[in-house]
Amino acid sequence: MEKSFFERVFDVTRKIPIGKVTSYGAIAKHIGSPQSARMVGWALNKSEILDPPIPAHRVVNRNGLLTGKIHFANRNTMVELLKSEGISIKDNQVVNFEGHFWQPE
DNA sequence: TTAGTGACTGTAG
DNA sequence: GCTACAGCCACTA
């Protein structure tokens, strides 16, 4: 039994270290479908109903832009969480994105 | 069962 | 440099 695409996304996302961020594309690539980054976002959307919750706030698009924050109940939640982990956010974007970037394995 | 949708990305104009 | 379009796969109605 292999894990579904869905579960792999969570598996990778959970491995993101504190203070680090990654992109949908990086996760999708790790799973094996670089062009299915949309699926990653879709999966993360479902993640909030899971237990335990997935650190979806550490996943941003390839520009370091917090596009996913619009799906949080409060649009400041994602920013605040990242800031509390030592990541600076400016204008919905990760400051020094490449410096904080983390890639699975 | 078929059709529609999605937290993206890369290429082309 | 910016805008537009197509592709990708899994899930829900």
Strands, helices and their partners?
Blueprint: H1 5-14, E1 22-23, H2 24-31, H3 37-47, E2 59-60, H4 77-84, E3 89-90, E4 93-94, H5 97-100
Parallel strand pairs: 1-2
Antiparallel strand pairs: 3-4
The chain binds a DNA duplex (13 and 13 nucleotides) through residues 4-6, 23-25, 28, 33-46, 56, 59-62, 66-72.
What is the typical, i.e. mean, pLDDT? Answer: 91
What's the helix-strand series? Answer: HEHHEHEEH
Shape: globular
* Uncertain segments: none
User: How large is the share of residues in beta strands?
Assistant: 5-15%
The value of Rg in angstroms is: 13 Å
> Helical element count?
5
Sheet with most strands: 2 strands, parallel
The count of strands amounts to: 4
Question: First CA to last CA: what distance?
Answer: 22 Å
- The helix/strand class is mainly alpha
